[in-house]
Write a structure and sequence with these properties.
This protein is of the alpha/beta class. It has a domain of 66 residues. Helices cover 40% and strands 26% of the residues. The chain is built from 10 helices and 10 strands. A 6-stranded mixed sheet has the order 6-7-8-3-9-10, with helices on both faces. Strands 2-1-4-5 form a 4-stranded antiparallel sheet, covered by helices on one side. α3 packs parallel to α6. The longest helix has 17 residues. The radius of gyration is 18 Å and the shape is globular. It starts with a strand and ends with a helix. The protein binds adenosine-5'-triphosphate.
Length: 235
């Protein structure tokens, strides 16, 4: 779905991504994991077309030249939903559809059912919803235009453990049922293990190891991989 060749990003004098190359396979879930500041969100923002990198980024087999067209095929979810506070949940969800002149009212109902959002919750403002409900609204909004790809930046990190476990199940089901390609950023190794077909561990803007969770355990490419796994286990 994505092919990245020597993608790098600097913010002024800060190097956020060193040349990174990777593939994101269609229909699979890739998880980006690594310590704070390692470049995970920057890489996701590059895939969302929100940051322009050096290097070559291809989507669906061709280098991206028209982000307008590509962005419609991508749903982007950030921590706490990233909702507009002055719009109700339903208005947030329908914003893009209205801009494009699409009547998607029925799809809201379908997706609300899939994410266990209730009617009265859809008519509330974000401040009147719990963190888990806001996150669900963010997920429904991202799914409205039926994107091929879901980009998820720490979608579960603001939630209490019970809600987090429930939403993790729902999200995994949604990704599987709707056959989406997903790229998910997390700090949590257990989340990474739960969601990933493939894992990418980053440090200092570079990829340390890429593979399955089993590869990371059985064949760590660098002492940092073992250190990272052990540190997470202790918690
Ligand atoms: N808009 C920005 N302006 C300047 N520097 C930035 C900006 N965004 C990120 N950075 C820097 O780029 C580097 C990578 O940041 P990024 O947010 O991609 O890391 P991350 O792995 O997602 O971190 P976290 O897990 O804490 O969210 C960091 O050094 C960060 O301080």
């Amino acid at each position: 779905m994505y092919s990245l060749q020597n993608i790098s990003v600097s913010y002024g004098t800060t190097i956020a991504l060193r040349p990174v190359s990777m593939e994101v396979e269609p229909g699979k879930t890739l998880v980006l994991i690594g310590p704070s500041g390692s470049g995970k969100s920057t890489l996701l923002r590059v895939m969302a077309g929100l940051v322009t990198p050096e290097g070559v980024l291809a989507f669906g087999g061709a280098p991206v030249t028209d982000w307008q067209r590509v962005r419609r095929r991508i749903g982007y979810v950030i921590q706490d939903g990233g909702l507009f506070p002055h719009l109700t949940a339903r208005e947030n969800i329908l914003l893009m559809s209205r801009e494009l002149g699409l009547d998607n009212a029925a799809r809201v109902e379908e997706l609300a059912a899939l994410t266990h959002l209730q009617q009265d919750q859809l008519d509330r403002y974000p401040a009147e919803l719990s963190g888990g409900q806001r996150q669900r609204v963010g997920i429904v909004r991202a799914l409205m235009l039926d994107p091929d790809v879901l980009l998820l930046d720490e979608p579960l990190s603001a939630l209490d453990p019970v809600i987090r476990a429930g939403l993790a199940d729902e999200l995994k089901n949604i990704i599987g049922t709707l056959k989406k390609t997903a790229v998910l950023v997390t700090h949590s190794l257990s989340e990474a293990r739960f969601f990933s077909d493939r894992l990418v561990l980053m440090r200092g803007g570079a990829v340390v190891q890429e593979g399955s969770y089993a590869d990371f355990e059985a064949r760590p490419a660098d002492p940092f991989v073992t250190e990272f796994i052990d540190a997470e286990r202790k918690l």
